[in-house]
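Subject: sequence -> structure tokens, single chain

Hey, anyone have a minute? Need the predicted structure for the following. Not urgent.
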Amino acid sequence: MALLRLLGFFVLVLVARFVLGYVPVVGGFLRATGFFGLWITAILVGFGLSQLGTLFLRRRRDRANMRALAAVDSPHNHGKLGALLLAQGRLRRALVHLEAAAAGEAEVAEWHYRLGATRLALGRPAEALPELERAVEIDEEHAYGAALMRLAEARAATGAQAEALADFERLERNHGPSPESAFRRGAALKALGRKDEARSAFAEVAELARHAARYQRREAGLWVVRARIASLV
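Reply:
Had a minute. Here:
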């Protein structure tokens, strides 16, 4: 069995090497490096298989968790199941469970926050507002300020720019500014006709992005791009 797996891996490496040979620049490099190029291909294939294996195990674990949660009909389990589906990007399926959780455990900020965030992601900011307001009413600092961020975003999306701006400023007083909060604050200022302040906020995004943690840099870069575009139009 081990020999068959090794043979299968070797065949897969050869196939990958053949396919990569047609990729501009990469193909030329692999041909020029001979056996070393084959070794690099083997490393890439091994890494790819490792990532696929990790993804497969994660999905199998998530499916097992969802089956366990679905086996007991309770608001808490609906909330956990909705959060899992939300993390997978399955927003419409998550919505049903989060609605049940928020109704059944009305005192839990997490379910209102998740439900509001899901409705907001589905382009339904007016429906998201009461849930996010409730989450912030229960705990203003919920999710390290993310509940307040989403509340401000929902208010801006429904045209309540002044209220949104107040929320962004409150968020930044509590947690300090971030590339996202600076961009959204700038957008609210721009919508209110305060263009000089908006430009200043958009310029702040790049400075904040430069000091972002390594794991946040990619997302921060996207806010920088959005800020540059917003400052031009």
